[in-house]
Amino acid sequence: MKKSKPAAKRKASVRPITDTAGDPSRLTPIERIGRETAAAAKLDLTNLKLSERAFLATCQEIYRADIGCYTPFESFFADIVRWTMWGNTPTLDTIRAELAEGSDGEFLHNWNPMLQGVKRFIQNYPDLIAEIQNAAKSEAEQPAEAAHA
Predict the structure, then answer these.
(1) Taking the CB of residue 72, how many other CB atoms lie within 10 A of it?
(2) 107/72 Cα distance (integer angstroms)
(3) 51 is a domain residue
(4) Number of folded domains in the chain?
(5) Of 91, 85, 80, nearest to 32 (Cα)?
(6) In a domain, 127, yes or no
(7) pTM
(8) Cα 66 from Cα 73, distance rounded (Å)
(9) Which has the closest alpha carbon to 12: 97, 101, 100?
């Protein structure tokens, strides 16, 4: 399975650059840290509504679950957020290119092999799958307070 390329090494043709200053491949490590610092400084955690807290928690969960090509959706989502953070908000063409079959888009490039790997894993390790499913079922049946104790 091909590992996802870091954002800095992806081809510009996949992500049309409208703001070359926001092109991640052209940012130095210091510039990246500066943009990340500026984005982090905007985070306002005061007076959040339930839906806003839930949204931020979901984003954090997706971000933390991103391990590259092994998590195609999470990687795609995190890339979109990073592009925006680095000053290169994706366009419709950018998203289409990323999702287009037969293109250099990472999503489908990673999705299909990952799906094949999951199917093979399930086929080869049914006992482990049953154990994982039972553990997940037990965890889901616990009251919310007990699950976080």
Answers:
(1) 21
(2) 6
(3) yes
(4) 1
(5) 85
(6) no
(7) 0.62
(8) 8
(9) 97
| DSSP of 98-131 | HH-TTSS-HHHHHHHHHHHHHHHHHHH-HHHHHH
Say how far apart CA 128 and CA 108 lie, in whole Å. 27
Report yes or no on 37 lying in a domain.
yes
Q: Say which amino acid occupies 16.
A: P
Residue-wise pLDDT tens digits, 27-80: 888 988 999 999 999 999 999 999 999 999 999 999 999 998 888 899 889 888
Q: What is the DSSP letter of 86?
A: T
Report residue 112 CA to chain centroid gap.
16
The residue count of the chain comes to: 149
Please write the tens of the pLDDT for every residue from 104-121.
677 878 888 888 999 999
The residue segments making up the domain with residue 101 are 7-111
Structure tokens at 55: 């949204």
Residue 131 lies in a domain: no
Residue 89 main-chain phi, psi, to 5 deg: -55, 130
Largest distance between two CA atoms of the chain: 51
Query: What residue type is 23 in one-letter code?
Result: D
- In whole angstroms, give the CA distance from residue 31 to residue 129: 44
Residue type at 26 in one-letter notation = R
